[in-house]
Amino acid sequence: MMLKPRPSPFALGATLYMPATHISILDIVRGQKHPGLKSVVLCLEDSLLSSHVEVGLANLRQITLALKVDPDRDGHPLIFVRPRSIDMARKIAQWNDSVVFDGFVAPKACPGGMTSWYDAVAGTDLLLMPTLETKEFFDPFGIRDFRDEVIGLGRDRVLAMRIGGNDLLASLGLRRIAGMTLYDGPLASVVGNLTAQLGSAGFSLTAPVFEILDDAHTLSAELARDVAHGLVGKTAIHPCQLRPINAAFQVSAADFEAALRILEPVAAAVFKLNGAMCEPTTHRAWAEKIVARAEVQGIANSRQSYLESEISVMPEPVIYGGQLAIAR
After folding, report:
1. pLDDT of 116-130, one tens digit each?
2. pLDDT tens digits, one per residue of 179-221
3. For residues 184 and 312, what is the distance between their CA atoms, to the nearest angstrom?
4. Residue 46, annotated ligand binder?
5. Total-model pTM
6. Which residues of the chain form CATH 3.20.20.60?
7. Which of this chain's residues are annotated to bind Mg(2+) (predicted)?
8. Backbone torsion region of residue 276, taken as left when φ is above 0, otherwise alpha when ψ lies between -120 and 50, otherwise beta
9. Is 129 helix (H, G, I), strand (E, B) or coil?
10. What distance in Å separates the CA atoms of residue 152 and residue 219, rounded to the nearest whole number?
11. What distances in angstroms separate CA 104 from CA 20, 95, 132, 161, 189, one per listed residue?
């Protein structure tokens, strides 16, 4: 039975992805290092060498002890752990202090593989966010099978499903190209299928990371498409991406006004507002999502796009020992 209040999927916003060995991990999960950070994933999988996993687990242990006695948790972002295996997830879930985490990201989730994840968190309040990043999700029937499996196990355990763009591209022998959004390449149809089959079944989805750190213009274009597809958040691999991502998921004043008008009990069957037709019968679900998004992401101060009014040039990535230092 779930005891903790279930967060809104829209509360994910920009989800900062970081290795569990990060030097500033405690300040970050407390919300002190990056004000406005809404959610974070502490990774024990792809971002760590196998020789560093024990250090990562020790860090998680220290976090549970520190946060358990933290007097003010309201300013904390949502905290998810990406374990290396289901067995590791099961062990973490059994920690007495695992309540400080909001749930697990289930890497490489696939049809036929979710029962073990549900078993791992049974008897806890921990939520799941499966990452859809394997070749099965190129197949519409694979998506259908996964959807039906999760519905059968219980949809309330899943806060959102994460689209793993980099791994999907890797299965094609491809990677990101500067100047091109996710929707300009072979994953456009995949995102469309995921949105159609999973979104229509009531599941929320989050957008893949944009890994080109010095291409703010393309990030802006991709975010607009993410929002248009109904995605509820986006993975960030560097703090410089937090502000533009969160700004993109704010609701425009015009959309908020339209949503409220559509939801009015005495709304006309069809009316014109801000140059567009509004039809409550068909637009009610959209309006409800707009209001829910505005409640946690807020309303934009201007009808300008965030690229015109908010975004600054991305800083150069910092290289340490030949590896990109993310989330510093």
Report:
1. 999 999 999 999 999
2. 999 999 999 999 999 999 999 999 999 999 999 999 999 999 9
3. 24
4. no
5. 0.88
6. 9-250+305-324
7. 167
8. beta
9. strand
10. 36
11. 13, 14, 14, 11, 27
